[in-house]
Design the sequence.
């Protein structure tokens, strides 16, 4: 399913998007398929991380997940297989890949995007690929009809923001705090400012990530944006159950806790009443 | 002859296909700010920045460092061998040239907090010293394994007021220290200056570090012309990230001088345990820049290995990558054992303890000398002194101290 169709569908249901991130292959391929299957039951969009050895835009939680996945033998080819399988089971949930540029560069940009198309991956997020370096990947994404999702940060100035929004499709990923990923306590004021700036220039759906860890955060974000992205807080559940050797002690317990958590988070995206939403937006 | 000097990088920070700015969006404005500040202070010399920097190099670092004619080594090798004595710079290595330049820039930019990564600790020590001297807060990221291996340097940094933070992620070495420093910078970008230690990373770092290390080659040129009345035939320098090599080579890029970049062959390229990205790596993107990296078939960065901590990094700065492809520099490598042998030769013949990094340059120079005549002039960049390596050398030679 295309990302734009998903956002239209959500709009009709009076809901915002709950986007869940999980590293493919964490702690191993088989279990990550099970975990992602649980996530697909509740998430509107699923972000699958293809692990990289040096994930500089991520915090320690996701770096550890990448290390676990790589140790278990995860690689980009397996990630495409994983995406295919999930798409057979959950065709109505769009999936996007998040990975670092060297993974794509190594495979060859066109080859990577073509494979995304073949495995019905709707979009790609590359956190270390700024707009200046993205021309050729952007062209391949256009050619194959895959969305290239860019990140914008509170430190992004207006003229740059406009340039990014011209190339960005699917949704725009708003970095809610200056920093790397990781669960934080409060949603920052500067995030709200940034969303307002994005809305001024573009109609593209705005989703907020980095630092969202609770249903209350999701609710707060969904009042002002089109979706909330939760990553580290989900990955932390794996961390809780995994031992030093990357084995999960109690698989059922793990999947149960994961299911309860994502189910709970999704509730934060349901808009209670239209009038209420409008007053909230006015107050910002 | 094609010209290379003062042409690269282009406006996008590229050296041919290499370099660029592959960093998270959050850092882009910080990098732009840095680019502008570097232009203002270094290129346009605002507030006489260059004079201040050169005065510090003279009075604080002790430059110019000597270009020393190594008589006994020359006799042994059968050609004229000169050593550029960066080991005699303040703190015993070329690292201070860059640390001081960037710390001064940080101060001019009004940044009060400086962060840096370090492997063996040489760049960390140089940064700590520059920050102490200029009154800046200093935080050093260092792989937990390196903290353990280099306790003396950790203490030196702490004595100079720096806070050393061990990094437990990944392989717990230099590569992970860079990752962690980048994370800190991403989080504290408004108040913090990231003082990168080699000619690596996103634009403008490779250019900036080269400019601050360029003094090495400038001095070599002046000194050799004075001593010999002509340019050298060959310059040899070791390459980890590549800052001492690009510094020594740069003034000679448009001259008829052969430039050898000596990488860490570790236990031999075929064993996979090496740090020779120019010789054995592939083009990839690491730490913000398109460069030669040591990676696997899927693009995962592999751990490097060398007996010399300063060469133990899985990539090489973009300008050297470009110059390799252009055929302007010759990348070569020597193994741990060859470096150890060269280390001892210099101790015995000249009474100089070279750093294990510089011993790599020396080891290749010894091999190369076979092809040179007795009037040929070879300059070896002795990038640092070897006191820090005495323990490692003793261990490798099976001696107890």
Sequence:
């Amino acid at each position: 399913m295309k990302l734009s169709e998903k956002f239209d569908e959500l709009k009709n249901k009076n809901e915002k998007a709950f986007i869940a991130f999980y590293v493919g292959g964490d702690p191993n391929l088989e279990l990550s398929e099970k975990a992602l299957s649980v996530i697909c039951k509740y998430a509107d969009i699923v972000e699958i991380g293809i692990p990289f050895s040096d994930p500089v835009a991520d915090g320690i939680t996701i770096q550890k997940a990448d290390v676990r996945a790589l140790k278990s033998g995860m690689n980009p080819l397996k990630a495409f297989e994983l995406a295919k399988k999930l798409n057979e089971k959950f065709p109505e949930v769009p999936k996007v890949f998040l990975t670092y540029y060297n993974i794509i560069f190594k495979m060859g940009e066109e080859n990577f995007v073509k494979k995304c198309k073949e495995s019905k991956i709707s979009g790609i997020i590359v956190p270390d690929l700024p707009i200046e370096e993205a021309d050729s990947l952007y062209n391949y994404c256009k050619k194959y009809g895959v969305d290239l999702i860019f990140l914008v940060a509170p430190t992004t100035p207006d003229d740059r923001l406009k340039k990014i929004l011209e190339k960005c499709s699917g949704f725009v990923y708003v970095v809610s705090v200056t920093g790397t990923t990781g669960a934080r306590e409060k949603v920052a004021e500067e995030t709200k400012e940034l969303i307002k700036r994005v809305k001024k220039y573009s109609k593209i759906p705005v989703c907020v990530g980095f630092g969202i860890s609770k249903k209350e955060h999701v609710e707060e974000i969904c009042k002002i944006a089109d979706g909330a992205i939760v990553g580290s807080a989900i990955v932390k559940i794996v961390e809780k159950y995994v031992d030093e050797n990357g084995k999960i002690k109690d698989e059922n317990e793990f999947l149960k806790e994961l299911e309860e958590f994502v189910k709970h988070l999704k509730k934060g995206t349901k808009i209670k009443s239209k009038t209420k939403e409008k007053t909230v937006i006015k107050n910002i | 002859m094609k010209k290379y000097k003062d042409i690269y990088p282009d406006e996008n920070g590229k050296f041919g296909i290499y370099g660029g700015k592959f960093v998270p969006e959050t850092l882009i404005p910080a990098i732009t700010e840095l680019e502008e500040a570097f232009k203002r202070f270094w290129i346009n010399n605002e507030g006489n920045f260059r004079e201040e920097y050169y005065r510090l190099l003279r009075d604080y670092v002790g430059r110019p460092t000597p270009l020393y004619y190594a008589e006994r080594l020359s006799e042994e090798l059968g050609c004229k061998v000169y050593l550029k004595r960066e080991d005699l710079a303040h703190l015993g290595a070329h690292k201070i040239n860059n640390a001081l330049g960037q710390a001064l820039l940080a101060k001019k930019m009004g940044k009060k907090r400086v962060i840096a990564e370090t492997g063996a600790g040489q760049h960390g020590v140089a940064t700590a010293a520059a920050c102490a001297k200029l009154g800046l807060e200093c935080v050093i990221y260092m792989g937990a394994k390196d903290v353990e291996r280099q306790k003396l340097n950790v203490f030196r940094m702490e004595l100079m007021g720096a806070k050393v933070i061990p990094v437990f992620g990944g392989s717990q070495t230099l590569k992970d220290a860079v990752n962690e420093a980048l994370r800190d910078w991403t989080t504290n970008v408004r108040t913090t200056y990231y003082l990168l230690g080699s000619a690596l990373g996103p634009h403008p770092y490779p250019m900036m570090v080269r400019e601050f290390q360029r003094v090495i080659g400038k001095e070599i040129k002046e000194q050799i012309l004075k001593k010999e009345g002509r340019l050298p035939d060959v310059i040899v320098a070791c390459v980890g990230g590549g800052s001492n090599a690009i510094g020594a080579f740069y003034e000679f890029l448009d001259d008829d001088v052969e430039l050898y970049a000596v990488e860490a062959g570790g236990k031999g390229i075929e064993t996979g345990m090496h740090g020779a990205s120019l010789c054995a790596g592939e083009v990839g993107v690491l730490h913000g820049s398109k460069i030669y990296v040591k990676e696997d078939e899927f693009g995962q960065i592999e751990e490097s290995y060398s007996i010399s901590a300063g060469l133990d990094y899985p990539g090489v700065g973009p300008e050297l990558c470009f110059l390799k492809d252009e055929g302007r520099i010759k990348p070569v490598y020597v193994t741990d054992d060859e470096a150890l042998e060269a280390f001892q030769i210099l101790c015995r013949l000249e009474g100089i303890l070279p750093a294990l990094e510089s011993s790599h340059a020396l080891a290749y120079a010894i091999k190369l000398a076979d092809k040179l005549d007795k009037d040929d002039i070879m300059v070896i960049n002795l990038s640092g002194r070897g006191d820090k390596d005495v323990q490692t050398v003793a261990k490798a030679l099976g001696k107890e101290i």
